[in-house]
């Protein structure tokens, strides 16, 4: 299998998570954020083959996580959801074992349904109301709730 | 969703604020106008607030409208476990306008999305209470003759006080200078100070009330509420820090007026009440006119 790998992958002596032929690689996820990424992208509902690695060595992050999804090409909107939980993540689109596209994680202007409002007195935490936020700050991310108008910051962000 | 609801003071542009104030002054000159003849208004108070409810219901009565509703959630189907959505959907079938007070923050915004008819927020938890803000603005406008270039001094609980937050947002259209007087634990939240910085609006933070009284055009006093404190000891420490007494007003500006959203506890000594600068009782009276103007705007009647 390794004989077919391209030069980028060949440069590494040994891959910590084996390569995929076609699909998406989400790399440089902070180790503690793996499950948030799984939630935010709804990966547990997905039928595609996937390999996950966590607590892998990373020179940048110390410990990182990686997700490789076979035959799935993330849309820009999905990529932007990642900004909420793992802005440092790098997305590579793979075709025939080659990186054909690198996608940048951009913070969206509006966030709907993904994040919980941190205000326990907000209507969205009392009744079945889909959350809506506007992004008022990018780094670190701060969201303003459309309903209670309170701010939810990165540190207190929980996924729905 | 309807677009004429008033949920947050930010739903009004500067022009709309001025338009509503003008309309309020017309209602003050001529309070009994049967503009709501044949209309039914729901007054839904999911938590009791006698002052606000009576003010709204007076406004509706003076406009010749009919009222249905409840003054306490215990007398509604909420106690049977009905969701807010269902209550609003049901009431929306019957009425032309919904006035609602609810303890949960964002409840009024949600109701305005569920209802076909306009919703006027009469307070949603610690979030917004825009009709209070409009009556505050009307009181400022009436006593100062303008909203422009005023020195607004806010005193007391600036951290949790929704009235000061909404007033700050609304006054931001009119080139004010703000003075904040609050104990350490109750200072104006960073988010609002950032908002002022972005708009280049000057503000000063003080810990002594004496320092600012003589600069103020408007002295906006607020109550430090016991229920805001998890630690009762913390409340005891700050509850008596800022008490306004008549003697402190000796060198205040001639045009200065004292406002307070009421109810007060002890933060304004009763010896201030006879001072012509005390305006808080007239302020409450202005609420009826401001609410008449808000209701008519929501229904597109004026």
CATH 4th-level superfamily of the largest domain in chain B: Aspartate/ornithine carbamoyltransferase
CATH topology of the largest domain in chain A: Alpha-Beta Plaits
Strand content of chain B: 5-15%
- Fold-level CATH name of the largest domain in chain B: Rossmann fold
Number of strands of chain B: 9
CATH class of the largest domain in chain A: Alpha Beta
Radius of gyration of chain A: 17 Å
Number of individual domains of chain A: 2
Q: Return the string of H and E elements of chain B.
A: HEHEHEHEHEHEHEHEHEH
Mean pLDDT of chain B: 94
Which stretches of chain B of 5+ consecutive residues score pLDDT under 50? none
Number of domains of chain B: 2
Q: Kindly report the spatial arrangement of strands forming the biggest sheet of chain A.
A: 2-3-1-4-5
Q: Tell me, rounded to a whole number, the average pLDDT of chain A.
A: 87
Q: In oligomeric terms, what are we looking at?
A: heterodimer
- Structural category of chain A: mainly beta
Percent helix of chain B, as a range, is 25-40%
Please, could you describe this protein's structure?
The complex is a heterodimer of chains A (about 160) and B (about 300). By secondary structure, chain A is mostly beta strands. Chain A folds into two domains: about 1-105, Alpha-Beta Plaits; about 110-160, SH3 type barrels (Roll). Chain A has three helices and eleven strands. Chain A has helices spanning about 5-10, 35-40, 75-85; strands spanning about 25-30, 50-60, 60-70, 90-95, 100-105, 110, 115, 130-135, 140-145, 150-155, 160. In chain A, the strands form three sheets. Chain A has a five-stranded antiparallel β-sheet with strand order 2-3-1-4-5, with no helix packed on it. Chain A is elongated, with a radius of gyration of 17 Å. Chain A starts with 6 loop residues before the first helix and ends with a strand. Chain B has about 300 residues and is of the alpha/beta class. Chain B folds into two domains: about 30-130, Rossmann fold; about 130-285, Aspartate/ornithine carbamoyltransferase (Rossmann fold). Chain B is built from ten helices and nine strands. Chain B has helices spanning about 15-30, 50-60, 85-90, 105-115, 130-145, 160-170, 190-200, 210-215, 230-240, 280-300, and strands spanning about 40-45, 65-70, 95-100, 120-125, 150-155, 175-180, 205, 220, 255-260. Chain B has a five-stranded parallel β-sheet with strand order 7-6-5-8-9. In chain B, helix 1 (about 15-30) crosses helix 5, helix 5 (about 130-145) crosses helix 6 (about 160-170) and helix 5 packs across helix 10 (about 280-300). The longest helix of chain B is centred in the C-terminal third of the chain and has 19 residues, at about 280-300. The two termini of chain B are about 20 Å apart. The interface of A and B includes residues 121, 124, 146 and 148 of A.
């Amino acid at each position: 299998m390794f004989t077919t790998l391209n030069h980028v992958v060949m440069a590494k002596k040994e891959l910590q998570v084996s390569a995929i032929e076609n699909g998406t690689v989400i790399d440089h996820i902070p180790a503690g954020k793996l499950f948030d990424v799984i939630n935010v992208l709804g990966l547990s509902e997905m039928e595609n083959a996937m390999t996950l690695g966590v607590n892998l060595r990373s020179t940048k992050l110390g410990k990182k996580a990686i997700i490789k999804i076979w035959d799935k090409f993330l849309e820009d909107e999905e990529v932007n959801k990642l900004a909420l939980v793992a802005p440092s993540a790098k997305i590579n689109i793979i075709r025939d074992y080659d990186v054909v596209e690198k996608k940048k994680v951009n913070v969206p202007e509006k966030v709907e349904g993904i994040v919980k409002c941190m205000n326990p007195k907000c209507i969205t935490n009392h009744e079945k109301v889909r959350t809506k936020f506007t992004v008022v700050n990018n780094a670190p991310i701060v969201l303003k709730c459309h309903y209670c108008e309170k701010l939810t910051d990165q540190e207190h962000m929980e996924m729905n | 969703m309807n677009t004429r609801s008033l949920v947050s003071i930010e739903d009004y542009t500067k022009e709309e604020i001025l338009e509503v104030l003008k309309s309020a002054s017309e209602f003050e000159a001529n309070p009994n106008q049967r503009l709501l003849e044949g209309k039914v208004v729901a007054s839904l108070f999911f938590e009791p607030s006698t002052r606000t409810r009576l003010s709204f219901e007076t406004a509706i009565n003076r406009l010749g409208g009919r009222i249905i509703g409840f003054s306490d959630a215990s007398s509604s189907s909420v106690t049977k476990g009905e969701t807010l959505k269902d209550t609003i959907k049901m009431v929306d079938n019957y009425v032309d306008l919904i006035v609602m007070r609810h303890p949960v923050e964002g409840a009024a915004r949600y109701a305005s999305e569920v209802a076909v008819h306009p919703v006027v927020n009469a307070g949603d938890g610690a979030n917004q209470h825009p009709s209070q803000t409009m009556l505050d603005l009307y009181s400022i406008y009436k006593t100062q003759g303008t909203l422009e270039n005023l020195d607004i001094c806010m005193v007391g609980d600036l951290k949790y006080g929704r009235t000061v937050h909404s007033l700050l947002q609304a006054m931001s259209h009119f080139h004010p200078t703000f003075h904040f007087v609050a104990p350490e634990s109750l200072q104006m939240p960073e988010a609002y100070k950032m908002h002022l910085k972005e708009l280049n609006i000057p503000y000063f933070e003080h810990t002594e009330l004496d320092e600012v009284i003589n600069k103020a055009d408007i002295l906006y006093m607020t109550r430090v509420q016991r229920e805001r404190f998890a630690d009762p000891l913390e409340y005891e420490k700050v509850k008596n820090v800022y008490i306004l007494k008549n003697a402190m007003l000796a060198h205040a500006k001639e045009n200065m007026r004292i406002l307070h959203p009421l109810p007060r506890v002890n933060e304004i000594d009763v010896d201030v009440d006879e001072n012509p600068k005390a305006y808080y009782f007239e302020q409450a009276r202005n609420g009826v006119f401001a609410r008449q103007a808000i209701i008519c705007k929501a229904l597109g009647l004026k």
